[in-house]
Amino acid sequence: MSAALSLSAPPATVPVPIAVVLGVAREYVDANRFDAAERLLGHVLAATPNHAETLHLRGYIAFKRGNGKEAATLMEQALAAGARAPRQYCNLAEVYRMNARLDDALTMVRRAAALAPMDPVCHFNEAMVRFDRLEIADCIRAARRAIALRPDMPEAHMRLGQSLLLEGNFAEGWEEYEWRYKIAGAQALMPKTDKPQWDGNPLPDDQGLLLIADQGFGDVMMFARYLPWVQSRVRRVAVACSPDMSGMLRRLFPGPTYFSRWEKCPPYVAFCPYSGLPRLHGTRLDSIPAPMPYFSPKPGRLAAWRERLDRLLPAGLRRVGIAWSGRPSHNNDRNRSIRLERLAPLAAVAGIALVSLQKGPAAAQCADWHGPAPLVNLDAQIESFEDTAAILAQLDLLVSVDTSVGHLAGALGKPAWIMLPFAPDWRWLMARSDSPWYPSVRLFRQTAPRAWTPLIETVAGELAAFVARPV
Fold this sequence. Notes:
The protein has 20 helices and ten strands. It has helices at about 20-30, 35-45, 50-65, 70-80, 85-100, 100-115, 120-130, 135-150, 155-165, 170-175, 215-225, 225-230, 245-250, 275-280, 300-310, 335, 345, 385-390, 405-410, 450-470; strands at about 210, 235-240, 255-260, 270-275, 320-325, 350-355, 375, 395-400, 415-420, 440-445. The chain is of the alpha/beta class. The chain folds into three domains: about 20-180, Tetratricopeptide repeat domain (Serine Threonine Protein Phosphatase 5, Tetratricopeptide repeat, Alpha Horseshoe); about 195-280, 3-Layer(aba) Sandwich (Rossmann fold); about 300-470, Glycogen Phosphorylase B (Rossmann fold), CATH 3.40.50. It has a six-stranded parallel β-sheet with strand order 7-6-5-8-9-10, with helices on both faces. Helix content is about 45%, strand content about 10%. Residues about 1-5 have low confidence and may be disordered.
């Protein structure tokens, strides 16, 4: 009998240059294959534990996974091991920015710019840090330097536009804001078409215009005020928006065709994102359109919720709606959302009942509520924004972070107090406590990044004064 053949062989060691391994790891990272990249990097660190570029790349992976603290630790280790490239400083600056370590972030971008003064990315990263520090003039200067070095850098134009709008410079701000759809990935929100973007001029009656509700629910509510202006210029209007908004818009702004699937889109000769309408309208601070309110609750829902809330809430208490968390995927959610427990000072105000209008996973935090004020959680009963509008109509006040419920209250003309992050969204402008977009809204601003405690204590004090006033 002949011996059995074996396909196994003793392992062989084939040396591979670290640069080659890192190149493959970067390809994995670009493809979001983070586990595969980390396995390769682990092999490098097993052989050379203090390899600076490998540590930095592992920190970058941690950052992409949303682990800001681990990312900072690894990139700091890379720095200690000799990482000195300008982009490495920029990356660490972005990690620090995400962790609200803004002084450290500014140090890193300054080091990067000193090493590579002609690199537009260094100046763009400085603009991002300056914005979060609310150093808007410096942010604008840094963004302009980046654009001077790379005129086609959409991210820098976008940050410049947001900063100009925040300062109230709408004329230039709207133009720079248009660059947002040249940022990689943003075009996914737009239709695949060879049709031009609308220029705002009237169209013949037989030609259609496509509007795309391109941003969050709050933006759809905010820019819905432009629909009458659009309809005065175009007879055939189609609006692409989510089913969550289409029912309310169809009721409040009849005339356009509303749809939520591209195969249902009627013919059109031009398109425009909702968020591009203020530019076409020529909106300035003194010409924001729409008489207030421009939303109203649905009568049938209004009656049903009046009866329901009268049954759920104790009589004689002021009804205060609350919402504390926005959409988690929002790129600034880490700065604008909080946990319900942080609103405890509001619950200490006598004479109120809290009504949770929170939707999504954060609504589950109501189960752990132990505040002195009664809290009614309506998450399971709110089926649409029509319900939310009807509930808001029954309340004395809304206290909310910067999310869609605040926009809805403003569009309804209901009193609403919106608690803003230190560096707010452009639409809330700088320093002021009122909003030209929503006259019924009052703005409360942080005095430092993520400084929620003093802000909420201020709101609680104002709430006590509000409750003490005669109805």
